[in-house]
Amino acid sequence: MIRSRRGFVLLTAALLTAVTAAGTAAATTAPPTDTEPAGTEAAGTESAGSEAPAPEIGELEQTDLTIGLIPIADVAPVFIGLERGIFEDYGLNVTTEFAAGGAAAIPALQSGDIDLAFGGYPTGIAAVQAGLPILISSEAVRSGDLFAGLYSMPDSGIEEPADLAGATIAVNTLDNIVQMAVEAHLVDAGLSLDDVTLVEIGFPDMVAALETGNVDVIAVVEPFGTIARQTLDANLIVDMFSARLENFPVAGWFVTSDWAAENPNTLAAFNAAFAEATDIAVNEEGALAAIVQTYTNATPELAAALNYPNMVAGLDVEYLQIVSDFMFEQGLIEEEVSVADMIIDNPPPSSVTDGASDGTAADTMAADTMAADTPASTVAG
Questions:
Q1: Are 35 and 29 in contact (CB under 8 A)?
Q2: Which partner for 198 in 3, 73, 269, 309 could form a disulfide, CB atoms 3.0-4.6 Å apart?
């Protein structure tokens, strides 16, 4: 599937069509990949400032939750929460459904097949511009060093972004944050999406597609980037979230406005449980490597070698506005979207790790495309 030059604008019609189609089910149950991932576990750092008090949560409107997510390292806190009974402690029975990406999960949210969806922020912002009632309920991931990258085979001759002209590039879904990052690096190299062909391939299948020559380049996240390096000696073309995209907001949790209004206590319980699990992921040595093995079939050695992203909880609206500003400045959306209008009522406090929000992303983009500051807050490094 090939993406047009203004795919995020065209996504408006695509999302509306998918949402109204009968029987649409974007999030599908899938077994973990059989590929053994590789993976450098981020050392946790102390929280900046005092800890927020435990939230007071009323009677849950709904106790059974189905959440859509991607089987990648980013969602480790969810599986920590499940394994350790944290969601149960908050009265929740959580079922996970694997999807190819956030763009696939939006129709499932609208149809009620899932209650919350994990996905990249550009997908949610594009959905809002399409007129869909999508809200952000919590942050989840900010970029980290080499947790995502573009890779080619060692004998391909594709060694840097300038070499990508004419290449076929695999992205997990079109019109998402991975595609946005790919385009940013193309533009910085004097190219555009017109110079490449994008194809949709799920992250777990990308390494095999690169090895067999079905694609020239994969745009992949952990654990599959490390797998490509270790098993194929793949060439790292560029760290996906580097240069202008360093410390960029990556992904979070989405809900529909109707569901959030009908289930405020349930949503508060999920956010509190997710924050507690994220704190463990950030601060407990070995927690990430141990849990990633359970849903990706990683060996202990490979899981410990991963480059994990910065894992966060809560909401920092100013910081998230970076995404909408960037998309608008790059012509990926027709009108700028105010992220403040996409936030749930009574949002959870930001909890991010020192070092993840050091102002780099905001300062860089302020010089290039906007005026924005990245506030300090608490994440896994």
A1: no
A2: 3
